[in-house]
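Subgroup meeting minutes
Present: P.N., E.W., G.H.
Scribe: E.W.

1. P.N. recapped why we're keeping a running log of single-chain structure predictions: easier to compare across weeks, and new members can see raw inputs and outputs side by side.
2. G.H. added today's entry (234 aa).
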Amino acid sequence: MDIMISSCKKDTEIYKSYALSDSNINVVGIAHTNDETIQQFLENNPDLLILDTTVDSINVLYVLSKLSIYSNNIGHKVILITEERHALLFDSTQLLGVLEKPITQEKILGALYKIKPVQQKILTPQDVKKLLLNLKIDLYSNGVHYLIEAIIMAAENHRLLQNLQEIYEKIGLKHNLPYEKIKWSIRSTIDTINKYTDAGLLSSVFKYYDEARALTPKYFIKLALYSFDIDADE
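Output recorded in log:
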């Protein structure tokens, strides 16, 4: 289980030592501020975030509101740490758990093992990169990187295929760029594929590829998902 801890420097070390007493737990991120928490969560995608409400440098509501952009159920990956008798201030039904101080090793491990087994990621960036390499696509451009992220997002949430602008906006927020920049980069990449990639090669890689149909970002993403036997129906 990969976890992340966001608290003051002293307490993160304590909570980390408690968590690492179990060999099945990996601490993949440590943060002490709002921005560090958001950035590391997005970069490391932990199974669970321990978020301390008692630290002045961390605004829990702000962090959760920002992370909810990327996951509607972000609370189900969060354990809050609160001052004694403050647990009732939080809606525990929207969270994985709420722990009151003082925090002990037993409390930490007990809360961590309430988490349901995490499904393996159905698709990884490495999977998508291999697919693109089979199409002889150069991986070293921003547009290709954004396209890979878009494919991963669509694999995790098919609803996003209904409106690609939502995908563009999510990627833009992650990279602090306007969504128009992301949209243009991905479309430019698809245009290049249309222009230079042989139709026969596309047919050999994408089993549902229609040579009579021009590639669009949405069509390409669907073909990519189908190639991994992921149902891309919206």
